[in-house]
């Protein structure tokens, strides 16, 4: 795993009704280590722990690779659009992905996984 592009912090997490946690980011825009750990592993329907493919991508990615990883994470890790998008936003902050990649993440819809969107 590569180091994050910005400083990290450790802030206690608050769980939201949709399954997300906050704060995901530090006041300086860096990644909250506890949030990263929470999104890095998870489960859908109380199944076995499955590691996030999106958070494991690294720095040099294409929009297509991010979409494919998010589709896998939706199916195997998060199970909802809000959680899948939050994982992608966290990865963007960690790896310093471009605004074009962030646009793919913010526009994620699980229907795109079936249609190749």
Provide a descriptive summary of the structure in words.
- The chain has helices at 33-40, 63-78, 81-95, 99-106, 111-115, and strands spanning 14-15, 21-22, 41-42, 50-51.
- It is mainly α and 117 residues long.
- β1 and β2 form a beta hairpin.
- The N and C termini lie far apart (29 Å).
- The relative contact order is 0.17.
N-to-C SSE series?
A: EEHEEHHHH
Q: How many structurally independent domains?
A: 1
Could you give a short account of the major beta sheet? 2 strands, antiparallel
> What value does the Rg take, in angstroms?
13 Å
Low-confidence stretches: none
Mean pLDDT: 90
What is the distance, rounded to the nearest whole angstrom, between the alpha carbons of the first and last residues? 29 Å
Our estimate of the beta-strand percent is: 5-15%
Shape: globular
Structural class: mainly alpha
Largest sheet, spatial ordering of strands: 1-2
Helix content: 40-55%
Report the strand count. Answer: 4
Number of helices: 5
């Amino acid at each position: 795993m590569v180091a994050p592009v910005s400083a990290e912090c450790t802030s206690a997490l608050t769980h939201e009704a949709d399954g997300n946690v906050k704060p995901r980011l530090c006041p300086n825009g860096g990644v909250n280590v506890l949030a990263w750990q929470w999104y890095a592993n998870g489960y859908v329907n109380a199944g076995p722990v499955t590691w996030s493919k999106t958070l494991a991508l690294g720095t040099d990615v294409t929009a297509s690779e991010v979409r494919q990883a998010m589709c896998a994470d939706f199916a195997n890790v998060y199970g909802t659009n809000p959680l899948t998008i939050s994982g992608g936003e966290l990865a963007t902050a960690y790896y310093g992905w471009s605004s074009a990649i962030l646009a793919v993440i913010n526009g994620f819809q699980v229907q795109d996984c079936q249609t190749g969107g």
